[in-house]
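OP here, attaching both records as promised.
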Amino acid sequence: MTEIIGVRFRDNGKIYYFRPEGNKLSVDDHVIVETVRGVEYGTVVLSNREIGSDDFNGDIKPIRRVANEDDAVQYEENKVKAAKAMEVCAKKIDKHGLDMKLIETEYTFDCNKLIFYFAAEGRVDFRELVKDLAAEFHTRIELRQIGVRDETRLLGGLGICGRELCCHTFLSDFGGVSIKMAKEQNLAMTPSKISGVCGRLMCCLKNEQKAYEYLNAKMPQVGDEVITPNGDVAEVKNINVLRETVRAIIRTGEEDFDIVEYKVDDLKFTPRKRKPAQPKKDNQANSQELAELDNEDRKYGIED
């Protein structure tokens, strides 16, 4: 068994695991750790616990030490320095005429590296910019290009639900989503309805997917024939997955019919086998799916 703690470096960032080295740490304590980027100041989000050796691949690094008040002061000073560095970098980007959008700047805790996050449509030749920044700040410079999802996560905002974006508040990893998930949940196939602020498919499509897959497996599909409690044969007109109800057409004559709503448990039918929606992690693939939907909307005159 190995004793570990969970540490985050951002409020909504991924959790990394370290050995506490005999320290008893609580949630919201701060520690100084060594990462691939250098020395970092992190917040404990999982207190001491033991895990089996088979639960992790590779070595778990120990923390350097528990952070003190001086470390907290330095951490805040680094954020102020990073904000000033961002202003300088923005001016140098304009000077070099580079087509890139500066998103965020941060120092590692020991100030051995200054990282600039930016977004751009394509590749950017920023070699001269790096030279200028290195001469200005006298430290290692890293320019990291990020996608629209990561840009939205860093900047934050409000979703169509009216709440803060999931990726900016609690979502530590982007889950794979696909158009089929939206179809499974009977959502309107309009890009503006199923895409987030970032322009990609909404991450929350995955949140309820398993529930919809379970409920849909119990439901008939539109056009299927079902047997009603009275023994009549009826054709499914539409379904309400969350209420688990079915509206079906019962023919009472050549041109006469009734539309009756039933609880799905009161009907007899053979459920169709459904293939689970396969998530797509490739943002470009999701973007292509939305573009195809957008083209279909224009073709058929569909508006928001």
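Record two, same layout:
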Amino acid sequence: MQVKCVICDVVEEIEDYSLQAKRLRNRKIHMYLCQNCNDRIKENTLKRHATGKFQLYEEKKKVDELI
């Protein structure tokens, strides 16, 4: 299966029956990132975490008293 990176537009080949290929076929919302872009985003995210100013906002869940 040929896939295209959404950031750098590099076309790569992945196995047709791999889990990643299945996700891309069945769920159109998933996007493919090549390994270079994935590593670059991971590295930049880890740098932002290290600054201490990075916050993840979690959804506040309503507690049901009856359960």
